[in-house]
Amino acid sequence: MQPHLSRRALLGSLSLAAGSARAQDVYPSRPITILNAYAAGGQTDIAVRLTADRLAAAIGQRVLVENRVGGATSIASTAVAQARPDGYTLLAGTSSLAINPTLQPRLTPRDPQTELAPVGMVYRGPFVFHIYPGIPATTLPEFIAYAKANPGMLNYGGVVGTVVHLATEMLCQRAGIQMTAVPNRGGVEGLLDLQAGRIHCNFQSPVEALPSLQEGKTRALAISSRQRLPNLPDVPTVAETLPGFEAVLWMALFAPPATSAPVIDRLAAALNAVTGDIDYRSRMAQIGLAAEGGGPADVRALLAADTANWRKVITEAGISAH
What we know:
The structure is a single chain. By secondary structure, the protein is α/β, with parallel strands linked by helices. It has 2 domains: 31-124 and 249-317, Bordetella uptake gene, domain 1 (D-Maltodextrin-Binding Protein, domain 2), CATH 3.40.190; 128-240, Periplasmic binding protein-like II (D-Maltodextrin-Binding Protein, domain 2, 3-Layer(aba) Sandwich). The chain contains 12 helices and 11 strands. The chain has helices at residues 2-25, 43-59, 74-81, 96-103, 112-115, 140-149, 163-175, 187-196, 206-214, 261-275, 278-286, 296-317; strands at residues 32-36, 63-67, 89-94, 117-125, 128-131, 155-158, 180-183, 201-204, 219-223, 249-255, 290-291. The strands form 3 sheets. It has a 6-stranded mixed sheet with strand order 2-1-3-10-4-11, sandwiched between helices. Helix 2 links the parallel strand 1 and strand 2 (63-67). The radius of gyration is 23 Å and the shape is globular.
């Protein structure tokens, strides 16, 4: 009887394997949900929803967006890290995944490299470094020289622990200048502070900065990405003065750990089709973001490099989240 039982067991295993293969073949068979750690209506939320709409068309299934705000983005990322690894719950992960492990090590996931599975890149968002017009500088080198001549007298704004805050600290470190941080809630508040002279400089998204620049209420000195912006072609990059400087807010899609390779591959292929679409890239550019393709390996490399970079900035500046 033993050979007969073994044959039955073997047939059962083959049947289960075939069922599993069929399940993968039809993925996705129901709606996918992307968790977004940012509030509805902002630049990041607009980008996530635009991406979800295009991803739905590319993958042949509805893609929903659910805002899970709070915990310095850890509520959304932890939920995905602990979700069933079936490809139906994804994270719109940002640069905070590279910042939190150093700045707020008690937050989860403590190691995004192992607790999340990267799918692919979505975008990189550069910042404009602009200043209060009362500062006698029209170029970044002139601003650095003025700051060196007036150590500690200049203020800058930003939300503590964000890329905007850390980018300014990195600028100070690379340029050898001292400025005072004036925490704010970012966005409109930071822009109003700058226009009024309560702070003297700020990194801000192009969408936020451009109207102020056009009205002459602030003056653009540099771009934080390694390439100049098409809509501000005459504004040099910070890297043209401080070689190697780059500070951008990036976004990538992540799945729970242990998500199968076929599912990751399916998602990555669909996402690359989205980010490579000319109309999508144009729509993203309109909100100040540069769509960027790339698979899991590209996300891992960026996350590792950004984590090391921000760890150095945070440690040298002695920045604390409290």
